[in-house]
Amino acid sequence: MVPLRQRIWNAERFSWWLTRLLHRFPEEGDFLWKMQQAELDHLGRSRAAQTAFAENYVGLPY
After folding, report:
1. DSSP state at residue 14
2. Distance between alpha carbon 52 and the CA centroid of its chain, in Å?
3. How far apart are CA 42 and CA 6, in angstroms?
4. What digits encode the pLDDT tens for the residues 6-60?
5. 10 and 60 in contact (C-beta within 8 Å)?
6. CA angle 19-51-39, nearest 5°?
């Protein structure tokens, strides 16, 4: 059983990561844009990354 505090911070981390993955921010430069593209490519090609994404998206069990 995962403590509630850890569960909340895991959800916050995933939300932050997904926001950074799917949105471009004007203050970020080319390096972060290329990192974002690499992360999306990795997610599209890696079964392990897709599994971790799906688990976090639906929420981990209580």
Report:
1. H
2. 9
3. 26
4. 889 999 999 999 999 999 998 999 999 999 999 999 999 999 999 999 999 998 6
5. yes
6. 45
- Predicted TM-score (pTM) of the model is 0.83
Are residues 3 and 51 in contact, defined by beta-carbon separation less than 8 angstroms? no
Q: Show me where the domains of the chain are located.
A: 4-58
- Calculate the dihedral angle through the C-alpha atoms of 38, 41, 45, 48, rounding to the nearest 10 degrees: 60
CB 4 within 8 A of CB 59: no
Cβ atoms < 10 Å from Cβ of 36: 17
In single-letter form, the type of residue at position 31 comes to: F
